[in-house]
């Protein structure tokens, strides 16, 4: 499969993606726990069907020490016992923040309150920006049909 667009060869994409990569670095350095960030990025990408992001975040999480059991259960986190309450709150917020068209209401007050029990304002800010960021990146990759499977850990760092 070949991508519809080569973002690395486009001057417009190059200028734009430089800012995206900078935003991603800022998020990595945020006080939101790294494991939570990878789980959220993976779940948003699963919902959107972004194969290249699923490939990337699965490999990055594994390299950072995430267990295969937890990675394999992200899609079924509600029924899985391997996630903390804080991680579950983040995954729930990520799902509602991603499925805005399906839910027609965005993130509910209940989901927000549950997340706010586990994360301070700076962490919540990072979580909201991460969900939005991942949705944007997923769309860039899905629209241009970026192929998955060849990602190597640290490739974009």
UniProtKB/TrEMBL annotation:
All residue ranges annotated as the Carboxymuconolactone decarboxylase-like domain in the record: 20-96
GO molecular function per UniProt: peroxiredoxin activity
Superkingdom as given in the UniProt entry: Bacteria
Pfam family, one: CMD
Alphabetical UniProt keywords: Oxidoreductase, Peroxidase
Gene3D superfamilies xref list: AhpD-like
The protein, known as: Alkylhydroperoxidase
Source organism (scientific name): Streptomyces colonosanans
């Amino acid at each position: 499969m070949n991508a519809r667009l080569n973002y690395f060869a486009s001057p417009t994409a190059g200028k734009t993606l430089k800012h995206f990569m900078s935003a991603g670095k800022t998020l990595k350095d945020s006080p939101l726990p790294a494991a939570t960030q990878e789980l959220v990025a993976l779940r948003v990408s699963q919902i959107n069907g972004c194969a290249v992001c699923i490939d990337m975040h699965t490999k990055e999480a594994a390299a950072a020490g995430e267990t295969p059991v937890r990675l394999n259960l992200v899609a079924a986190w509600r029924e899985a016992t391997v996630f903390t309450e804080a991680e579950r709150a983040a995954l729930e917020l990520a799902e509602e923040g991603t499925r805005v068209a399906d839910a027609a209401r965005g993130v509910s007050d209940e989901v927000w309150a549950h997340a706010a029990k586990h994360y301070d304002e700076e962490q919540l800010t990072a979580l909201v920006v991460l969900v939005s960021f991942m949705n944007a990146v997923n769309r860039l990759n899905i629209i241009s049909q970026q192929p998955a499977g060849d990602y190597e850990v640290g490739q974009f760092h």
